[in-house]
Amino acid sequence: MTRNRFFIALFFCVFALFAACNEKESDLGVDLQDPATLYEGICDTAYGTAYTVFDDSLQTSSQSNALIGCYSDDVFGSSEGVLFMQITTADNAGVEFDQNSLIDSAILSFSLATVYPESLGSKSYRDLHFEVYQLAEPVLRDSAYYAFDELAVNGTCFFDGTVRVEQSDSMVASMRLNDNFIAYVRNKSYASSTDFEAAMKGIRVRLVNDGTPQAATINLAAAGTGLGIHYRYTNGSDTIARTYNFVVSQTAPHFCQFKNNYIGALSTFNTNTSDSIEGSQYLYLSPMGGTNVKVNFNSFVQQFHADHPYAVIHYAELQLPVADLSPAYKPDMVAALKLNADGSMSSVQDMYDVSFSGYDGTYSENGKYYRLRITQHLQKMLKAGSDYGTLLVLNARRSSPARLVLNGTSPSATGNNPIRIRFVYSE
């Protein structure tokens, strides 16, 4: 069976599951089948409350991807990502370019996983305006950096220009750094990477908005990301062409700063990040240190626990319908985190259960919703008799600018299509 046919069959299995089971008003059970188990059960639906909150603690250091540039739409507003990065040597090794080393060029390259917006129209290339400045202080190895962090530059520009990138599966943006950078290596000797980092400090990389916002996801782990010094080494009468590669990859200290300028309902977060937006009609998920959604089913859980203290949950699915006003470019996945009584968070265990692929927070084109299998998560809530909440986040909130508007929690405000938990139980 092909992959597409498998997922179509899978969808109809689960659709049949909910269509065939008895609603809670009935005392009769019927055989129900999902790909993992056979059981008898009763269908029920849980409704809750939710609100949009600001993501004020997104750590961006030590990630394998860096999201830079500008992205905007008519619902959320605009966002910008900026990369702060150390340039270092491998294995704490020293580096020397003596009087016998004639430096020809310093080429900084970034492997681009994706450039946004993805549509090019009739073009086969992109013109990206990069700006590279030297930092006034280093990116520290032993520090965690967050989306709101920023380091000052010292005014020294290493590159400011447009790079043309041909659209392909292996896009690389390469820029020739100027003499301001080469001055740090020409006729210089550094005993270790620590010495070089102390002199260089690091770089700030921006993708400048020249009127047409563009953003790019840099793959810091790819072979195409690097900084090479191309030089000729003279040894007596021989001249040898050489390249020295500095480290600007995932292993170099780095982080991204994200800045958001929201519009409409979200504009409250421009001045008050501790505020929240009531979610009966709409709920907003945005990346880049943006917004998350807190959803709570505590009232339902308490009542169900009282009415059915010995209920066994056979299957539960959190359905997140996409609102009509949501931007067309959709995120790949919505992830869920469990909020605990002490305020801490932990992973929803079902997110890592791969036995039911396609119900792991990805989008269903047929149902027009994102869905998460939360069977174990709901069972634990019902056993405890309380729900302290679930935090919904965009899985790629550090590496993709895609945003999402969900229907809220009110059936009447959402055309009878709110977020909800559909589940099957027996007792």
- Characterize the quaternary organization of these chains: single chain
Summed up, the helix count is 5
- From the helix content, strand content and strand pairing, which structural class follows? mainly beta
Low-confidence stretches: 1-8, 25-38
Describe the main β-sheet briefly. 11 strands, antiparallel
Share of residues in helices: 10-25%
Mean pLDDT: 90
Radius of gyration: 26 Å
Gap between N and C termini, in Å? Answer: 37 Å
Number of DSSP-assigned strands: 28
The general outline is elongated
How large is the share of residues in beta strands? 35-45%
Description of the structure:
The protein has five helices and 28 strands. The chain starts with a helix and ends with a strand. Helices cover 12% and strands 44% of the residues. The longest helix has 18 residues, at 3-20. The chain is mainly β and 427 residues long. A hairpin with a 2-residue loop joins β15 (226-235) and β16. It has helices at 3-20, 179-182, 193-200, 298-307, 375-384; strands at residues 22-23, 30-33, 38-46, 49-54, 65-73, 77-85, 95-97, 101-116, 125-135, 153-166, 171-176, 188-190, 203-207, 215-219, 226-235, 238-246, 254-262, 276-278, 282-285, 291-296, 312-321, 334-339, 345-347, 360-364, 369-373, 390-394, 404-407, 420-426.
